[in-house]
Design goal:
single chain; globular; 416 residues; ten-stranded mixed β-sheet; Rossmann fold; 26% helix; alpha+beta
Length: 416
Amino acid sequence: MDTVPGKTTENPENSHVSEQELRDAMVQCLIDMGALRTSRAVAAFRTIPRHLAAPGTDMAKAYDVESALITKTDPTGVDISSVSAPRIQALQIEQADIQHGMTVLEIGSGGVNAAYLGEMVGDRGRVVTVDIDPDVTARARDFLKTTGHRNVTVITGDGGSGALDFSPFDRIVVTVQAADIPSSWVHQLTEGGRLVVPLRMRGMTRSVAFVRDGQRLVSDGFELCGLVPMQGAGENRMRVVVLHDVEGEEIGLRLDDHPEPDAKTLAQALSMPRTAEWSGVTLAGDESNEHLDLWLTTALDNLPLMAAQPAARERGLVASASPLGVPTLVEGGSFAYRTVRRTDDPDRFELGAYGHGPEGQKVAERLVEEIRTWNREHRGDRAHIDVYPADTPDDQLPRNARVIDRPHSRTTITWP
């Protein structure tokens, strides 16, 4: 592929740092954190001038491994298009196991990821990238023209339909959050091919690597991630029920097919003194709770996510504040959410739950019970995720599975 000569960033703080030095530093960071592992992927990330996809963005930020480059928002201010952070792009590309000469479909364009894929499949391979937004595809075409990637075809259309005219695909990489798996993605994937998709399951998104096995998709690993939601026919956004609406310290529940809560009663519960229940289960300071949270949403029926502004935590309204949300068990007019507290060991934190409402203590105890179950029976385990066609009978699904029904698919979560 053709490349663009390196330049020097105009940021005064980095006035002597060239584009290539920024790319090399980004790549080394991705290698150190384990996001980049294969030589072909490393070479691609060293080559592509990703900063050109978002003109006006500080060049150093463009190569920050955790920074997404937002390229479009909707009228309400919600991000609807972005160039994903390098770490997310790297983990998805490694999950996809891209090989030279493959035919790859990308759902959700931005140009940069398609260029990475184009580098990896080489001149004998082909990349097709699809996006519903003509502004996005126009920017992608301009970027790919600049970088000289002639093996990438850009299509404006609903990614939920795939790209039948160019199928079958050895790999499909979805770069937008999806709540459902359209049958077109399965049918356009070769047998044994890999689909990598940020799949939202009961509010929790994981980038899952699936392998096609007939009409079923079988998971081959997943990673925690966050991406902008899909648009078009497959759009299925979560809904927020507000419990506290003071400007700057809003608190709400993010619903993903969860039962409709009594918002007024839960708002009243939030104003009541909270109770606490502690589990005796601890996490190291650098230990992720992603597998615990996936267990909780598997085991508990009504577990939306509570999102809160930092100011709400500073005022003591809640103990945890996360834009993505904290698992929160709702039972009637009471609720309890996962939290932690420091222990005598400065590197370990104890898991617990804070409860609000008339039955807050009882609900907190129920949440903590499942934290202990995870620690006793599943700590160290990873969930297994399969996707079946929507018309699959219950008796053909795995036993003891959490089943998530969508218009086109039935996703199952099971544990060893």
